[in-house]
Specification:
Blueprint (H helix, E strand, L loop, with lengths): L1 H41 L12 H25 L3 H7 E8 L5 E3 H10 L6 E12 L2 E14 L2 E16 L2 E11 L2 H16 L9 H6 L1
Parallel strand pairs: 1-6
Antiparallel strand pairs: 1-2, 3-4, 4-5, 5-6
């Protein structure tokens, strides 16, 4: 009888141990599944390639607008003969290559602006594209310079490339290159070619000496 009771008691202990082990195993599996799920949700997804976001276009538009304000300040300082305004836009390292090939520094540009005798001089600049290269920005655009040559009023139209450097949270131009567009000569050539094409027969003018030679 005692031996039978001992066997039953041992059987009850084994049953309880199995139940505890089964519960512990189920709890461990649940915790592992929850941890795996949290890890998956926290893991970063694939990174989109640079320039693929829709914000690239808006960033470029913002850059053009930003540098247009700088170009407007530059032109306004030239038009008003404002020394301080020019010094804010142009870097002390500024080098300018004009459309005629003249190379000048910032001090020379400021001196020319405040001592110019031409009161009709007026500059406008329009930014077309901007390339951001870290702390360097390259702005390309068009310009029109209204000024007087002798007694004639002329408008020089061309394109420019301005290189800016980030300085103390702002931008200062360190290099300027301008190229003049010769539009008038091309228009004259087109008119002359159109006039000659409209005349099926061209009669040259002969002088008396030419006739006598013939």
């Amino acid at each position: 009888m005692i031996e039978g009771k001992n066997q039953l008691s041992q059987l009850g202990v084994d049953t309880r141990m199995n139940r505890i082990f089964a519960c512990f195993s189920a709890l461990l599996l649940t915790c592992c599944a929850a941890a795996a799920q949290n890890f998956d949700s926290a893991a970063p997804g694939p990174t989109a390639p640079a320039g693929a976001s829709s914000g690239a276009t808006s960033t470029q538009t913002t850059a053009v607008a930003q540098f247009q304000k700088i170009e407007d300040s530059w032109a306004d300082a030239v038009n008003r003969r404002d020394q301080y305004g020019l010094e804010l836009v142009l870097s002390p390292l500024f080098v300018d290559v004009s459309a005629t090939g003249d190379v000048t520094t910032r001090n020379q540009q400021v001196a020319q602006a405040i001592t110019v005798d031409d009161k009709t001089l007026y500059l406008t600049q329009k930014v077309v594209t901007v390339r951001m290269l870290g702390d360097i920005a390259v702005a390309n655009g068009t310009y029109t310079l209204h000024h007087k040559v002798n007694t004639t009023q002329v408008d020089d139209k061309g394109v420019f490339t301005h290189v800016f450097e980030r300085v103390h949270g702002g931008w200062a131009c360190i290099n300027s290159q301008r190229t003049l567009l010769r539009q008038d000569s091309s228009v004259k050539q087109k008119k002359q070619s159109a006039a000659s094409a409209s005349e099926p027969f061209h009669i040259p003018f002969f002088s008396k000496s030419d006739k006598s030679d013939q």
